[in-house]
């Protein structure tokens, strides 16, 4: 069907979506990483954190018991308590923040900050559209399914773990003293949290795969979308065809007019200007053709094929290219420089001089493209 989105998204479409903050990302992965970070810190540093917390409270209450309670003492102990509590929680908070940051970067393929995502959008303020996104979208259905699955799976696993250790739980307080009972409860808690963490990690991985699939589906394009993007990226075929036609027309005009020139001035490779002077039809030399790069190269080739002298003079060539129009006489301020060149060309044709007699400023100057090649110019004039 026309307009059906069956094509995979192009890189340009994905880049545009990324600029808008639209990427595949799972909130379940963030939750799993936070839970994993908390479990890791408590598993390997829980004993030290407990000892530090115990010492913190003992020291605080000892200071309160030793000195009279005043406003100044309360402020000092409060500030000390907050500082030590932050140091105590720093490993936990730092690990959670680091894993959450790395997890976000891994999902989005690098740091991502989009100003466009912060701009208010009318569709987000529409209550009907909002209700549709919440209750009648594929994402809403997926969120509901994830919530039910998470509740059922985690509840079932927790029940299973407790059931397998029911004998120890029933015996608590009956055959064990307080401290051994607390040890059993802590061990059971860690086992329960470990199983829950593993399940949440697996669910996060599955949700991330779904988010990637859903994002790829949303980014799909129709064949017409792909064609339109190609036109925007590479140019409209009609415009390209018109430019090609203009280039062919220009090259054709070069082929027709350059053989009639008296001299061709070059830069030597960047610019070329073909000049002709006919006192019977004009008061000054006329520009027959001019061009840059490929056109300049073609002007020079045609000149060499037809025995037109090709003279390198970078400053004059650039001046003519910028100031003179094709089919028009050259500007008056360039008369003297062009007249000197034409005088040398006429003498060269009459056999009165040779290329070795050329003025330095005509053939011996060096420009940005390198020194003049007298042998090449001589071959062109032969």
Commentary on this structure:
The protein is an alpha+beta fold and 382 residues long. It has helices at residues 11-19, 27-66, 71-108, 122-125, 127-135, 138-164, 166-171, 178-219, 223-234, 237-257, 294-305, 314-323, 335-349, 360-364, 374-381, and strands at residues 263-266, 271-276, 286-292, 310-312, 366-367, 370-371. It folds into 2 domains: 11-109 and 127-230, no CATH class; 240-381, 3-Layer(aba) Sandwich (name from scop), CATH 3.40.1690.10. The protein contains 15 helices and 6 strands. A 4-stranded mixed sheet has the order 3-2-1-4, sandwiched between helices. A hairpin with a 2-residue loop joins strand 5 and strand 6 (370-371). The longest helix has 42 residues, at 178-219.
Strand and helix map with partners:
Elements: H1 11-19, H2 27-66, H3 71-108, H4 122-125, H5 127-135, H6 138-164, H7 166-171, H8 178-219, H9 223-234, H10 237-257, E1 263-266, E2 271-276, E3 286-292, H11 294-305, E4 310-312, H12 314-323, H13 335-349, H14 360-364, E5 366-367, E6 370-371, H15 374-381
Parallel strand pairs: 1-4
Antiparallel strand pairs: 1-2, 2-3, 5-6
């Amino acid at each position: 069907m026309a307009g059906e989105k069956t094509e995979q998204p192009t890189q340009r479409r994905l880049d545009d979506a990324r600029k808008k903050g639209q990427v595949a990302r799972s909130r379940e992965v963030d939750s799993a990483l936070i839970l994993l970070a908390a479990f890791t810190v408590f598993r390997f540093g829980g004993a030290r954190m407990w000892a530090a917390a115990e010492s913190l409270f003992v020291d605080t209450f000892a200071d309160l018991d030793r000195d009279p309670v005043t406003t100044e003492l309360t402020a000092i102990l409060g500030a000390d308590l907050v500082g030590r509590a932050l140091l105590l929680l720093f490993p936990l908070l730092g690990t959670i923040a680091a894993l959450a940051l790395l997890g976000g970067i891994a999902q989005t393929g690098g740091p991502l900050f989009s100003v466009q995502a912060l701009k208010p959008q009318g569709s987000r303020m529409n209550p009907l559209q909002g209700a549709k996104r919440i209750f009648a979208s594929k994402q809403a259905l997926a969120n509901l399914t994830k919530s039910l699955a998470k509740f059922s799976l985690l509840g079932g696993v927790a029940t299973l773990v407790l059931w397998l250790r029911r004998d120890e739980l029933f015996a608590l307080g009956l055959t064990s003293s307080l401290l051994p009972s607390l040890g059993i409860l802590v061990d059971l808690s860690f086992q329960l949290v470990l199983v829950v963490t593993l399940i949440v990690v697996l669910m996060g991985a599955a949700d991330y795969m779904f988010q990637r699939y859903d994002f790829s589906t949303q980014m799909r394009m129709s064949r017409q979308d792909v064609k339109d993007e190609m036109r925007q990226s590479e140019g409209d075929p009609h415009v390209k065809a018109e430019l090609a036609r203009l280039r062919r027309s220009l090259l054709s005009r070069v082929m027709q007019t350059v053989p009639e020139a008296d001299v061709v001035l070059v830069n030597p490779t960047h610019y070329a200007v073909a000049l002709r002077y006919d006192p019977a039809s004009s008061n000054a030399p006329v520009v027959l053709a001019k061009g840059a790069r490929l056109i300049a190269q073609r002007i020079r080739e045609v000149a060499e094929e037809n025995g037109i002298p090709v003279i390198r003079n970078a400053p004059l060539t650039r001046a003519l290219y910028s100031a003179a129009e094709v089919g028009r006489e050259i500007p008056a301020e360039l008369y003297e420089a062009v007249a000197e060149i034409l005088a040398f060309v006429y003498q060269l044709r009459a056999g009165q001089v040779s290329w070795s007699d050329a003025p330095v400023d005509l053939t011996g100057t060096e420009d940005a493209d390198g020194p003049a090649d007298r042998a090449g110019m001589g071959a062109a004039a032969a």
